[in-house]
Amino acid sequence: MHSRHREPQLLGNEATLERMARILAARNIDPAAAPIPDAPEPFSPLDALPAGMPPRYRSAVADQPTVLDWVRQVSEAAVAPSRGARRQVATGPSLLMAGVVGAGKTYQAYGAVRALVQSGVGVRWRATTAADLYADLRPRPGVDSERELAAVSRCPLLILDDLGAAKASEWVEEVTYRLINRRYNYELPTLITTNLAIRDLRSYLGDRVASRLAQMTTRVEFEPVDLRRHSAAA
Q: Which of 18, 30, 119, 213 is the most exposed place for a label (fewest CB within 10 A)?
């Protein structure tokens, strides 16, 4: 039996270089003159995270036990959109942080986002104060308020800061209800901070919003210490 002589098979980068050489030769291009693309720099999602954060909170670290437990639950609920793909935040629990101004609620919220990324999951998120959200959604010419509300409502992870700081009105209550109701129905994780005591939320937000918040969130009341004043005094 005659054995067949086989050329050695090229693997990985060698095979790629061989294919490139054949393509360049077919096009009468001197391989020595052809530019070789630089290898991409290693990319960490954590490197890109500060671009979406206010400078004050770019180094925020979550250390409150209930917040850390929320991070764990959301990370565990993350799913991969396809086999082998990175797990992404899709659904999960929400967290309501209540306490006086300067107690560290917003710091913990941004720290929780950083902790999620550090845990290795991908997350599309956005942050807004309630007052800014209402300002963006006020009906006015040239602005599609419904589209903006839908975008905020569908975002996989939302920080809604200072809920209850804006002046109460029927319109504010209705917008808040539509936002919270959609996130409640689709089980989208939401980090909510408020300066109101939890017992006062119903009178400000109305029964419909308060009822959904009670069902969708774990609640934590921060100690009544203004950390900003304490830091300034120190």
A: 30
